[in-house]
Amino acid sequence: MDRLPDVKIAQLRHFVAVIEHGGFKAAAKAVFRSQPALSLSIKELEGALGSALFEKGSHASPTPFGAMLYGEARKLVEHYERAIASAIDVAQVRGGRVRVAAVPSIAHEILPRAISRFSPRHPGIHLHVEDGTAAYIHDRVRSGAIDFGIAGEPKDDSELSFTPLLADVMCVVVNAGHALFRQRRVEWKDLSGYRLIGNGTLRALPEPVRRAAGGQDDIFIANTTTLLSAVEGGVGLTVLPYLAQQRHRETLRFVPLDAPRIERAVGFVELTGRSLSPAAHALRESFCEALDDVSLPATHVRRPSAD
Q1: Residues of the chain with CATH 3.40.190.10
Q2: Is 90 exceeded by the pLDDT of residue 247?
């Protein structure tokens, strides 16, 4: 195939303008060019394509070749303008889409605060939000299904980067009728003999800690809301990070666990070496602002030092 001529989009736009505005003078005004500059642009286009676009003696009547080119040139110019306008909207956070996922303890309380900041500032952005376990979120980031996640730190994974945001203490969750409900602190060994409802957090704890707890864990519930309802209903106890507690559950208490004190780190999970889109970056910044405004008990939640 012969090498295609170097035709510029501006030349095609000028050609379309001459036909649609009925002459070179009106077209030059419409595209903010002088009439001689517009005429030169058309002449260069004709030279590149190898055929006249307008009839001799007429400044606006296309030749059969010009008439054939007009329809395709008009579609190409319109497509180009739509593409550039969309790109500018994305760059200036006026359009586009952001996909984010967070662990339930963050999705329940802090992420909605970030969204309430982000959405009024960027009403043209489509936002897709998921929640799930840390492992699920790591997979979603790795596959490119979401722009970034808010979850625990990936272990030994060079594909993912982690920016710490906070660390909260592990707690035993008990209902109002339980003997541990009024305790200020509980040690892991104090859980021995109680039925522990298993969950992803509990299974991810170090083996020595799980052995020290020594409770029965013949029930496993992955969903946090269902898990808390089971504890509320007296099915058993469970272990969750402090921020997993939900409002309007006054009959539950999160009691910090000691000996040893174990913290769960949460942060931004992103693809290593990959930049965020402007909209995703704006949501990330909104989350940081929301986190700064949330009142968190220093005894249970720790923010990383800014060094």
Answers
A1: 97-151+271-302, 167-263
A2: no
